[in-house]
């Protein structure tokens, strides 16, 4: 019983660490990661894309952001201009890292991701609560 529990915990830990390393690796080669303090002033006047679910976006989001779900943006990112900076965020950087990698491969050179996602954002937000 203890061995099984230990094995499950170990596997979860290895998955978690591997996932974090993979996300950081993707981000290093495909985007610039900005802290909350840098994200707000640098994104002003540019495309800010919230790739979370619509319900989370409607509840609370970065002021000036528009919501394009990850799967929709993955299939068709023609709504984003390649010649302008794109600022992405999600809940915890996982999908934003994947999206940044996709955009980089498609020729987007100025991709920025909010460090640690919306959970740590300290700038201006719009809330419907």
Globular, elongated, flat, extended or rod-shaped: what is the shape? globular
Report the sheet-strand fraction.
15-25%
Helix coverage percent of residues? Answer: 40-55%
As laid out across the biggest beta sheet, the strand order is: 1-6-5-2-4
Number of strands: 7
Summarize the structure in words.
- With about 130 residues, the protein is of the alpha/beta class.
- It is built from 5 helices and 7 strands; from the N terminus they run αβαβαββαβαββ.
- The protein has helices at about 1-30, 35-45, 55-60, 70-75, 95-105; strands spanning about 30-35, 45-50, 60, 65, 85-90, 110-115, 125.
- The strands form 2 sheets. It has a 5-stranded parallel β-sheet with strand order 1-6-5-2-4. It has a two-stranded antiparallel ribbon with strand order 3-7.
- Helix 5 links the parallel strand 5 (about 85-90) and strand 6 (about 110-115).
- Helix 1 runs parallel beside helix 5.
- The longest helix has 29 residues, at about 1-30.
- The radius of gyration is 16 Å and the shape is globular.
- The model has no long low-confidence stretch (mean pLDDT about 90).
Keywords:
single chain, 129 residues, alpha/beta, five-stranded parallel β-sheet, two-stranded antiparallel sheet, globular, Rhodanese-like domain-containing protein, Rhodanese-like_dom, Rhodanese-like_dom_sf, GlpE_sulfurtransferase
């Amino acid at each position: 019983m203890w061995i099984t529990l230990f094995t499950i915990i170990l596997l979860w830990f290895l998955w978690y660490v591997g996932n974090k390393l993979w996300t950081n690796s993707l981000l290093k080669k495909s985007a610039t990661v900005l802290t909350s303090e840098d994200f707000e002033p640098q994104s002003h006047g540019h495309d800010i894309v919230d790739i979370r679910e619509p319900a989370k976006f409607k509840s609370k989001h970065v002021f000036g952001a528009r919501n394009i779900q990850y799967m929709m943006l993955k299939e068709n990112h023609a709504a984003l201009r390649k010649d302008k900076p794109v600022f992405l965020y999600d809940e915890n950087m996982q999908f934003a890292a994947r999206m940044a990698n996709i955009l980089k491969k498609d020729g987007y050179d100025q991709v920025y991701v909010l460090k640690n996602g919306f959970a740590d954002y300290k700038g201006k937000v719009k809330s419907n609560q």
